[in-house]
Amino acid sequence: MRKGKKQLLQDEDNRELTQKNTIKRRALLRAMIGIPVLGAFAFEIFKKTTFDKQKRDRIIQELGLENINNTKGIKSPSATKGDLIRIGIIGFGNRAVAHVNGLGFMEPADVEAFKERGIFGDWLAQDNLNIALTGICDVFDLHAEKGLEIARNGIRTTGATPNLPVKRYRHYQEMLDDKDIDAIMIATPDHHHAEITIAAAKAGKHVYCEKSVALSEAEICDVYDTVKSSGIVFQLGHQITQSIVFQQAKEIIDKGILGKITLIETTTNRNSADGAWIRHLDKNGKLKPGDEKTIDWDQWIGTTPKVPFSIDRYYNWQKWFAYDSGVIGQLFTHEYDAVNQLLRIGIPKSVVASGGIYFWKDNREIPDSLHVVFEYPNHDLTLLYSANLECSKNRGRVFMGHDASMVLGNSIEVTVDEESTRYKKQIKEGLLSASEPMISLNSNSGKVDAISGATSKYYTARGLTTTTIDGHQVDTTYLHIKEWLDCIRNGGVTSANIERAFEEGITCVMATKSYLEKRRVEWDPISKKII
Amino acid sequence: MKEKNSYTPLQMTILVLLRFLIGWHLLYEGVSKFLTPNWTSMGFLKESKWILSGFSIWIISNKSVLNMVDFLNIWGLIAIGLGLILGLFTRLAAISGALLLLVYYVINPPLIGLEYSVPIEGNYLIVSKTLIEAVALFALALFPTSSIVGLDVFVTSFKNRRNK
To answer: Is pLDDT of A337 > 90?
Structure first.
């Protein structure tokens, strides 16, 4: 019995110990409860990434777009080797400032602005183009002096060629006669483009010319013939196609992802005085500088009808048909170039334009609302252009195909068509849906991401001024200039060459003619004449 | 950290659940950024409208600073998420998580008159989910659970042993 009592006590001790152990074990389990949660998290991540990848891979595979993200490799910039090219700039306004940035120069005042936009470091890292800026020509003293100052200051891209002496020319012909200039960049008002390009080609200088190339059919033909026979390298200022998204858009179109395209809608949507070319006042509403003493008015007028000096005409020349063709020359040219580079549509068979001056009722001649229909029966295609300078709602640039449509801006969004023939099976299977884009590509990696839920929404509708190559923001104007210089040194054909410039020039003249003459204008491909 | 469990089982369960949920969310925000090629906070910072907009611009304009901010964002979120789920260094994780969320909030707060170019899901007036999550994390820091349910049990016992 005694033994039994001892036994009992021991049993109790054991029970207590077991109980303690159980409590300890429970505490231990409680301490580690996060581990299975983490396990579940890892499993869900694995499931999600696998699902996303499989879906993406299947779409990409079915569309044949395996290499679309490698497009960046094609035009990746490399150091430009070869002889030094000495460049002269004719017309040193705002656009020329963008040109010199591309060439590797900068105005001190722009450094801060570039830093604010977060692209100063990328600008500094631009490859050395091995060029010298040795000539500036402008009819306005102030602009010419600004050009000289930029050419002389020390703000240059890393490793750039040291500055050479720079000279001011009073007349473009003096610059063209100078054997110390190899190539010129034209950024004057449009009514000088053809005349200067022709003179430069005759003088054997390579030409980078801003759009529009010319304002009349006769001028375009003259420019075309002279440039063709001279053998110079010509580049029209349409840097837009240098963007990675354009090269990706080309692959999408070439692979037939959209199916048959019968309609392309292009638009201009602006709503500001500056956007409507009212630019003679500064920020404080005061007249910008310039008078007959500092501006060579006769030279500015050139071959256009003589008019007395006008600060309005000097700064706002886009408002008159004598100097430009308004929305057609300034804005449609970019739209046309984008479409022509992608689809090689060339000159339309017919053009109908209609519009008027409905909002900016000043002394302008050019319409502020203009809508043009270009017909391409040989491509089964209509190109629409609709410009509005009194409402900035973005209407995008849309390629409408039977199987899918593509919105192309600073990014690409391709959405399948619900009634598509090609993707019928995939739509039925749920792999593709018209409710979300099947391809979404972005030129800037500056994706919006906030923990508050704006995740994975993309920035769009930013100006197409830079493109992202290997994580760096690269100026498309720089790439376009580089392509021109590469062709000067190594031969080859520029993307905005004289053939494209001719097609664009004729197309624009047809649109302007149709608006002014209020009739349908046609192109005769045999006689190569507008009728 | 609180030693004795003075919560009822239901209180404890809800507090731990809240800790898991916020931990899961922050961990996934970190992991998804890590998995996104070329992810950068640049777009988010570019939108900055309020008192930190100058600071945000300074970050963007400095490539190396931006890279560092991106790195800290990704790994900070992952570390905070792991801390909350595992219950390890939980008070530190909760407080730093709350501060990080407050920074996100202050960079782009939904105040009257501030407009953002990016659509936001939901409708917010001053109070956004980010702000609520930040305050919830402060609450978790004040009502600790990890010394009972979490790896902080070992941290606490290690500290106690050393103190003895």
So the answer is: yes
- Are residues A389 and A436 part of one domain? yes
Q: What is the DSSP string of A180-220?
A: T--EEEE-S-GGGHHHHHHHHHHTT-EEEEPSP--SSHHHH
Per the domain annotation, does A303 fall within a domain?
no
**For B67, which residue in chain A has the nearest alpha carbon?**
A471
Name the closest residue on chain B to residue A27, using Cα atoms. B148
Instruction: For residue A235, give its domain range.
Output: 85-241
A478, part of any domain:
no
- Tens digit of each residue's pLDDT (9 = 90 or more) over A449-475: 223 222 222 222 323 456 766 667 788
DSSP3 helix / strand / coil % (chain A, rounded to 5): 40, 20, 40
pLDDT at residue A435 in the model: 84
C-beta atoms of B128 and A452 within 8 A: yes
Using the Cβ of A125 and the Cβ atoms of chain B, whether some distance falls under 8 Å is answered with no
Q: For the residues A417-434, what does the mean pLDDT come to?
A: 89
Specify whether A162 is located in the same domain as A104: yes
Q: What is the pLDDT of residue A443?
A: 57
Residues A271 and A209 in one domain: no
The answer to whether residues A95 and A218 belong to one domain is yes
Q: What percent of chain A has pLDDT over 90?
A: 66
Q: Within this chain, do residues A337 and A452 fall inside the same structural domain, yes or no?
A: yes
**Does the beta carbon of A115 lie under 8 angstroms from any beta carbon of chain B?**
yes
Q: Note whether A321 and A194 are same-domain residues.
A: no
Q: Three-state DSSP class for A527?
A: coil
A-facing residues of B in 66-125 (CB < 8 A) are 66, 77, 82, 85-88, 101, 104-105, 108, 116-122
Q: End-to-end distance of chain A based on CA atoms, in angstroms?
A: 129
